[in-house]
Amino acid sequence: MAHPIDIHVGKRLRQRRRLLGLTQEKLANAVDIRFQQIQKYESGSNRISASRLWSLAKALDVSISYFFEGMNGAEPKLDINLREEYGFAEAPAEGLLEEKETMDLVRYYYRLDEEPRRRLLDLARALSNEG
């Protein structure tokens, strides 16, 4: 049975990889392993060694602490600051931030210049009846 921390670290790995638009194969090549190992890391079925975590952090351009963000004790929880910052009355649906579609939306949003981003945000607000 996978440990909750290994599952959390794997989810953070998947989230960052998808945000950068990397395939499991591209990430595996960057750290000189097979893509199947990335699959096992992301599912939490295989633990990530300290040296491998270091390599993955470098390849994904994050600090090692990134993989542990959001941990509260042994169970990952949504930080209350995220709720306030992003306007969630409650925690987002389980796995929402891990969905490929969500990560694609975020990635493409940040590729836009400032003015189109602002207009897209205004459109989203209007469509959600908060504008």
Automatic annotation (TrEMBL):
UniProt-listed CDD domains: HTH_XRE
GO cellular component: cytosol
Pfam families per record: HTH_3
InterPro entries reported for this sequence: Cro/C1-type_HTH, Lambda_DNA-bd_dom_sf, TransReg_Diox_bact_type
Record's keyword terms, sorted: DNA-binding, Transcription, Transcription regulation
Superkingdom: Bacteria
UniProt entry tagged with the keyword Transcription regulation: yes
Database matches in Gene3D superfamilies: lambda repressor-like DNA-binding domains
PROSITE patterns associated with the record: HTH_CROC1
All copies of domain HTH cro/C1-type, residue ranges: 13-67
GO molecular function: DNA binding; DNA-binding transcription factor activity
Record keyword Transcription present: yes
Name of the protein this chain belongs to: Helix-turn-helix transcriptional regulator
